[in-house]
Amino acid sequence: MKNERGPLQGVLNIVRFNWHFYVLFFVIFGLCLLMVIHWATFLASYVWLKMAIWLGLAAAATSTFMSLAISWYVYDKSGLYNLKWLDDFKLPSKGFFLNIHAGFDETSVLLQAKFPAATLQVLDFYDPIKHTEVSIKRARAAYPPYPNTQHVRTEHLPYADESVSLAFAIFSAHEVRDEAERLLFFKEIRRVLAPNTQLVLVEHLRDWPNFIAYSIGFLHFYSLSNWQSTFKGSGWRIVTQKNLTPFVKCFLLEAHAHSN
After folding, report:
1. What gap in Å lies between CA 154 and CA 102, rounded to an integer?
2. CA–CA separation, 57 and 26 (whole Å)
3. Do residues 166 and 92 lie in contact, with contact meaning Cβ atoms separated by under 8 Å?
4. How do residues 44-63 score in pLDDT, each as one tens digit?
5. CA 33/CA 25 separation, integer angstroms
6. Is 5 exposed, middle or buried (0-12, 13-18, 19+ CB in 10 A)?
């Protein structure tokens, strides 16, 4: 399968899969602009109101275009998808690897190219009842699944205890919205991993950089303290963590023990 990304693939996918938001934005923005022009005479007597409307329109436009610019930087310019940052972790080069995603898989081809001696099994925990985002449905329709991708439930991975050499969850674990389910999910990943092996977790955080980037959209992510609570509650420790960009953090996790 092709493993090269286009120069604007990341930001174009965001627009492609979320086009309804951008259409709605431009319609509302255009209507507000027309109203300001139409009521120009009336607003001339209310300078403060006119200024507030213009500031609101400017803030909305700035937020939208800043979000796209930052997305271009993160997904297309930063080198996130060249996976060179994995070299810092001294991961095994071969074994049985899992790549776990939530319905949209941009990394399996890249991981297999990065670890050609490994056996890579891709797991998809997408559940159309729980994961109702239309963007995921559009992404699944646009991109065929990686060969032999297996659909799984978050509470059960179909592998024996300690049978996996390395696992990845890249921009996927936050889609498990229920906290109890998320704990079970991480315990299940811990169960199938062999001793002294790791889980590579990549996520946006609910923090100030992502608020600046995505405004209220940052609420779809979890805070650092929330992730730390999940790790502790499911038996993981953080081996190391690093910022891949100011907006993306990677955790290298290792199981404390394999008892429940």
Report:
1. 10
2. 11
3. yes
4. 777 887 788 888 888 888 99
5. 12
6. middle
Name the strands in the sheet holding 119-124, side by side, starting at the edge strand that comes first in the sequence. Answer: 150-151, 119-124, 96-101, 164-170, 193-203, 248-255, 236-245
Q: How many other CB atoms are found less than 10 A from the CB of residue 134?
A: 12
Contacts by 145-151, CB closer than 8 A, 24 or more apart = 145/105, 146/1, 146/99, 146/105, 146/108, 146/109, 146/122, 147/1, 148/121, 148/122, 149/105, 149/108, 149/122, 149/123, 149/124, 150/121, 150/122, 150/123, 150/124, 151/123, 151/124, 151/125, 151/126
pLDDT digits (tens, 9 = 90+) for 227-257: 999 999 999 999 999 999 999 999 999 986 5
Whole-structure pTM value: 0.89
Cβ atoms within 10 A of the Cβ of 237, count?
Answer: 11
